Amino acid sequence: MEQFRTLTSVVAPLDRTNVDTDQIIPKQFLKRIERTGYGDFLFFDWRQTPTGEPVPDFVLNDPRYKGAQILVAGKNFACGSSREHAAWALSDFGFRVVIAPTFADIFFSNAGKNGIVLVRISEEKVAELLKNAQTIPGYQLTVSLENQTVTDNKGFSATFEIDPFRKYCLIEGLDDIGLTLRHAAALDAFEAKHDEATWLKAKI
Question: Into how many domains does the chain fold?
Fold first, then answer.
């Protein structure tokens, strides 16, 4: 998992509330056995018409937001089913930060394990960011995980809370596997001792 400390990026405004995981990554793509490539299907039904044509006024099809790594959305983001694929799709598309007033609990856990920083700030602050991103060309934010702040160069400033352990894992770039591998030497020693004990027991 890639480390996260500070990011400055163009902001993509998704001015919608109650965005559910079936919109983030529709169910027909859950059959894939790969863990990569889901970015192509992010918000699939919103990005294109039933005939496959791009929807020009959808935020991710707008060239103004190309390359955005920060997504700002309304409250209750990623509600619905618990599919981890939603976090995979956002990460694979290139988003490192999602800012919203509230998130669904299971998604909140899944996102952190996939290197996505979720920033909870007030609805008033989110509304201000949505407006700025929609009206100011090339609008950028700086998100500092170390300082737990969101700022721009126009006077906006907000702080956010994050679980200390989650913060540590994101800064160090540690997912569940990475955390386990930090104890590789101890695990190897335990296995060797266990194997020896099993061998001695078999001889008796």
Answer: 2
